[in-house]
Write a structure and sequence with these properties.
Order of helices and strands: EHEHEHHEHEHEHHEHE
Bound molecules: the ligand O=C(O)C(=O)[C@H](O)CO, magnesium ion
GO molecular function, one term: isomerase activity
Radius of gyration: 18 Å
Strand content: 5-15%
Helix content: 25-40%
Strand order of the largest sheet: 1-2-3-4-5-6-7-8
Family: Belongs to the hyi family.
InterPro entries: HPT_OtnI_isomerases (IPR053398), HyI-like (IPR026040), Sugar_Epim/Isomerase (IPR050417), Xyl_isomerase-like_sf (IPR036237), Xyl_isomerase-like_TIM-brl (IPR013022)
CATH class: Alpha Beta
Distance between the termini: 11 Å
Pfam family, one: AP_endonuc_2
Protein name: Hydroxypyruvate isomerase family protein
Number of strands: 8
Length: 271
């Protein structure tokens, strides 16, 4: 039976961030993910998780910045990671170490590392070596800390010039980095927009054991997975048949209220 985690950055936005934990738990979620913890003291977030019987299953390393305040502000300033960006290695490394520290407090096993926006005039291909080198260093740190780092192909309509867009490119990076501590975050919304053939890709990649997290949303609106051009009930059954034991993050923007839109989950609730 697929297990769903609420994404508190996109869901429950009717509520202030810290109140979203209680709302997700009231709706029967036992796990959450969200973009970033850096605007908060991680102990405050841990208290919310514990108070509501939730586990944190994923968050992102900082998109850029040196120091917690700069890391917390970087996303709104347009930063989308530094793993593949020349001249940003100090921020990359500081970000990974900060994320590992927060993961310890939050007892979170997975951290998504964003690779960045390809600078104007630069060829994507030319950044691969640097990205591999940075990810090798980061995967080693993650291994020591008992965490798994993830990379996620993201579509270019939502994130123009983002470095990593295709599933095969993510798996090529895994080949090059060659670490058990680096895996793929397979977001089916992005996968459908960039390359399609989603069921075939699930059949190809889930059995490899190299996918450590799945995320879902309708395409193209990025809303509940009961609408749009992807037939999610088929895909959820397939994911189940493929023996997936991991989490599926609900990374969607509810069409008309988070709770009102949760009907799609009914067939997948335990008991
Ligand atoms: O945008 C997504 O799909 C994500 O999962 C990232 O965490 C943020 O870009
Ligand atoms: Mg995603």
């Amino acid at each position: 039976m697929p297990q769903f985690a609420a994404n508190l950055s996109l869901m429950y936005t009717e509520l202030p961030f810290l109140d979203r934990f209680a709302a997700a738990a009231e709706d029967g979620f036992t796990a959450v993910e969200y973009l970033f913890p850096y605007a908060w003291d991680a102990r405050t977030l841990r208290a919310r998780l514990q108070a509501h019987g939730l586990q944190q299953v994923l968050f992102n390393a900082p998109p850029a910045g040196l120091g917690r305040a700069a890391m917390a502000a970087a996303w709104d300033q347009g930063e989308r990671g530094t793993a593949a960006l020349p001249g940003r290695q100090a921020e990359f490394r500081a970000g990974v170490l900060q994320a590992l520290e927060d993961a310890e407090v939050l007892d979170c096993p997975r951290i998504h590392v964003l690779s960045g926006i390809v600078p104007p005039g630069v060829e994507r291909e030319s950044l691969k070596g640097l990205c591999v080198e940075n990810l090798q260093w980061a995967a080693e740190q993650a291994g020591r800390a008992g965490r798994t780092l993830l990379i996620e192909p993201i579509n270019l309509r939502d994130m123009p010039r983002y470095f990593l867009n295709r599933q095969d490119h993510a798996h090529e990076l895994l080949d090059a980095v060659d670490s058990p501590h680096l895996k793929v975050q397979m977001d089916l919304y992005h996968c459908q927009i960039v390359e399609g053939d989603v069921a075939t890709k699930l059949r190809r990649y889930l059995p490899t054991g190299r996918v450590a997290h799945i995320q879902v949303a309708s395409v193209p609106e990025r809303q509940e997975p009961d609408r749009g051009e992807l037939h999610y009930s088929y895909l959820f059954e397939l994911i189940d048949q493929l023996g997936w034991q991991g989490w599926i993050g609900c990374e969607y923007r509810p069409a008309a209220g988070t709770r009102a839109g949760l009907g799609w989950r009914a067939p997948w609730l335990p008991g």
